[in-house]
Amino acid sequence: MQFDIGKARGRRLDKEGRKAAQNRTLWGDALRRLLKNKLSVISFCWIMVMVILAVSAGLWVPQVLGDPRVINTTMTSTLAHLAPSLSHPLGTDQLGRDIAARVIYGARISLQVGVFATLIATVVGLLLGSLAAYFGGLLDSIIMRITDIFMAFPFTLFTIALLAVLGPGFINVFLAIGLLGWTSICRVVRSSILQIKEMDYVSAAKALGARHLRIILRHILPNALAPVIVYATMSIGTAIITESALSFLGLGIQPPTPSWGLMISEGQSFLASYPWMVFCPGAAILLTVLAFTLMGDGLRDALDVKVTD
After folding, report:
1. How far apart, in whole angstroms, are the C-alpha atoms of residue 87 and residue 85?
2. Are 26 and 270 in contact (CB under 8 A)?
3. Long-range contacts, stretch 31-40, CB < 8 angstroms, 24+ apart
4. Which of 161, 182, 204, 232 is least surrounded, with the fewest CB atoms within 10 Å of its CB?
5. For 268, which DSSP code?
């Protein structure tokens, strides 16, 4: 009797296990693997903290820490170069502005530039990479040669040259980074689609008379998005570093708008006496870029279909 009960329980567990396996999806498995990666979870939490601080900054930062863009000329000498304290958690700069407030507002600029620039680069790269891989032939050769020309120039130097023409400013910065950063994504998309377009389901769609646009959007791109998502996540960190470098050189965000790179540029003269003016925005850049990089690594492992639980 006990043996029959055990067999029935085993059959029920096997049936539930098979049902659970049937309900599993690629994205569900990827999410489960991603949550097991502690570094990726910590990185995601840091990114969310920065996003929340950046989005809500206007609601509380000016009231609690002071407006990071306003210079009080009557109090500058009194408030300048204050060390970190309860009233000023990260100290103040040479003009008496709270560094914590400027770091939080600088997160707005860095995250917006990173996301918008990566979005532009991803859209352009997806479009050109898809056309090159799917149609091949002369179109593929033309797009790849254009890609090679863009990749032949140093990225930062090319961005500086473009900004020298467009002029500094927030919009011009993310446009320059986005319009010059599509080449790597284009190659990643092309490599993925070259493999996917030879699959049987793509051949079946062609045999059934599906149009090219439907095949690309419905059957090819959804299966080629995994490496694009990984690369785009890492590209946000690259865009943040590029924006900081441009602002440091005076070609990016202009004063009095806070920017992490601009803050480092303004504080480099006081590095020996007041190191917090450089270390605080530098730490923000380091931790945020590292978070996006580790998040990208975690996504790469999570979206790898060869990985089994």
Report:
1. 5
2. no
3. 31/302, 32/309, 33/301, 33/302, 33/307, 33/309, 34/298, 34/299, 34/301, 34/302, 37/298, 37/301, 37/302, 39/294, 39/297, 39/298, 40/294, 40/295, 40/297, 40/298, 40/299, 40/302
4. 204
5. G
DSSP letter, residue 98: B
In the chain, the amino acid numbered 54 is A
Separation between Cα atoms, residue 150 and residue 160, nearest integer Å? 14
Give 170-228 pLDDT, tens digit per residue: 889 989 999 888 998 999 889 888 888 888 878 888 888 888 788 888 888 878 888 88
**Torsion sign across C-alpha atoms 131, 191, 290, 179:** negative
Structure tokens at 120: 């532009």
On whether the CB atoms of residues 262 and 246 are closer than 8 A, the answer is no
Side chain identity, residue 195? Q
Structure tokens at 191: 């490599």
Q: How far is CA 271 from CA 93, 253, 278, in A?
A: 11, 21, 7
Contact 246, 261 (CB under 8 A): yes
Task: Please give the DSSP secondary-structure letter assigned to residue 70.
Answer: -
pTM value > 0.90: no
Q: Compute, in degrees rounded to 10, the torsion defined by CA atoms 48, 49, 51, 54.
A: 180
Q: Is 92 helix (H, G, I), strand (E, B) or coil?
A: strand
Residue whose token pair is 């949550």: 35
CA distance 199 to 183: 25
CA dist 105 and 228 (Å) reads 29
